Amino acid sequence: ENIKMEYSKTSALRSEFSVAERNEVLTQGEKAIVNAAEELGIFKDAEENVRTLFEAMLSSANYEKININFN
Questions:
Q1: Distance separating alpha carbons of residues 47 and 62, to the nearest angstrom
Q2: Does the predicted TM-score (pTM) go above 0.70?
Q3: Burial of 17 per CB tally in 10 Å (0-12, 13-18, 19+)
């Protein structure tokens, strides 16, 4: 990855964030997004949308038995 910090503002009482601190904040944010997506039902909606899409596509290709599982 080629990530470049464009702007970083720190106060006089706080030094710049270390790479480890930035990574921890990113990890926390990623977990919060995944948890929110689960709570909001986004994954369930996505599964239903994918199921509908693939069932329509495979039915039009003359498949008669279509079984779609999500783990």
A1: 22
A2: no
A3: middle
Q: What is the DSSP letter of 41?
A: T
Structure tokens at 67: 């079984």
Measured between alpha carbons, how far is 39 from 20 in angstroms, rounded to an integer?
29
Residue with tokens 């909606």: 45
pLDDT of residue 68: 93
5: which residues sit within 8 A by CB, 6+ positions away?
none
Q: Give the H/E segment covering residue 59.
A: helix 42-60
Q: Render pLDDT for 46-67 as a digit per residue (tens, 0 to 9).
A: 999 999 999 999 999 999 999 9
